[in-house]
Design goal:
Layout: H1 13-19, E1 26-32, E2 35-41, H2 43-59, H3 71-75, E3 79-80, E4 85-86
Antiparallel strand pairs: 1-2, 3-4
Length: about 90
Amino acid sequence: MEYKTEFSFPLSEELLKTLGIDEDTAFETYYEDGRIRVRVLDDEELEDEFDDTEDEAVDEEDDDIDLSLPEKCVLCPNFCWHCKKCTIDI
């Protein structure tokens, strides 16, 4: 059985404004030392992340890659390249 998890945390408008968070803000999440850590990615880090991902994709010769995937899926952080499926059940 496959488990999917999604967390949501309400943030006040004041905190969102202070931190500069809006709908276009990208986050990095990871698990470390018994905690789920979330941090905001700045534009430079986000570009580096996509550049690294593109470099890895070019380096790998995988005949199973579906080139017909919509661009929004290819760029989405919720798309799993291992199983070639969305990790969010929308």
